[in-house]
Amino acid sequence: MTERDPLEKAEAAVREAQTDTVAVQLALAAVELAKAATAQQQAGPAPACGHEHKRGRSAGEWIGIACAVCVGGIGIAFASLALAILGGVAAIVALVLRDMWRDLHKGR
């Protein structure tokens, strides 16, 4: 047989009582109060603002976001390095071309 929880046992005991005394009325009130308390605990508190809130992100989502940020940061670092090298090369080419231009016009 399945064992009943204490709340069901209390309800059964109250129903079996033959006389309607103050003790039985108190027991009924206690049972109803316990039912209301368990129903309120299961339902949980209602949000004060009146709308539904989204659940937070799980740990896996945060780890994925962190990995994406790290990969993005490394990509930005490499892109910055490439732009710096490109700028340096462009400066060297400009200096060489300027020197060649001077040499070309110096001979005239």
Query: How much β-strand is present in the residues?
Result: under 5%
Main beta sheet: strand number and arrangement? none
What is the CA-based Rg, rounded?
40 Å
Span of the ends, CA to CA: 115 Å
The helicity comes to over 70%
Shape: rod-shaped
Summarize the structure.
This protein has 108 residues and is mainly alpha-helical. 75% of the residues lie in helices and 0% in strands.
Write the layout of secondary structure elements.
Layout: H1 6-16, H2 22-43, H3 59-106
Helix pairs in contact: 1-2
Explain this structure to me?
Helix content is 75%, strand content 0%. The protein is mostly helical. The chain folds into two domains: 1-43, no CATH class; 75-108. Helix 1 runs antiparallel to helix 2. The N and C termini lie far apart (115 Å). The mean pLDDT is 81.
Could you name the key traits of this structure?
108 residues, single chain, mainly alpha, rod-shaped
